[in-house]
Design brief:
The chain is of the alpha+beta class and 66 residues long. It has a single domain, classed as 2-Layer Sandwich (Alpha-Beta Plaits), CATH 3.30.70.100. The protein has 2 helices and 4 strands, in the order βαββαβ. The protein has a 4-stranded antiparallel sheet with strand order 2-3-1-4, with helices on one face. A hairpin with a 4-residue loop joins strand 2 and strand 3. It comes from Skermanella aerolata.
C-alpha cells in the first residue's frame, strides 16, 4: 500500500480525475482518495514512479505523505 499527498484537489471532480489516472496505471488494484486530507492511498504492485507521473500528467502535484 502506498500513501501520497496530492496538492490541488479541490472538489469531487478532481478526486475522480486523480482516481481514474491512478487506476489506469498497470498493476494498480484500487485508489482511494481522501479529498479533505488531500491524500490518496493506492493498493497494488504498480511502479511508484508511474503512479506519480500519472498524477502529475492529470495536472496535480504529488509528494510523499507525512
Amino acid at each position: 500500500m502506498l500513501k501520497l499527498k496530492v496538492d490541488g484537489m479541490t472538489c469531487d471532480h478532481c478526486a475522480q480525475t486523480v482516481t481514474k489516472a491512478i487506476e489506469a496505471v498497470p498493476a494498480v488494484e484500487r485508489a482511494l482518495v481522501d479529498l479533505k486530507a488531500g491524500e490518496v492511498t493506492i493498493e497494488g504492485s504498480a511502479d511508484q514512479g508511474a503512479i506519480r507521473q500519472a498524477i502529475e500528467d492529470a495536472g496535480y502535484d504529488v509528494r510523499d505523505a507525512a
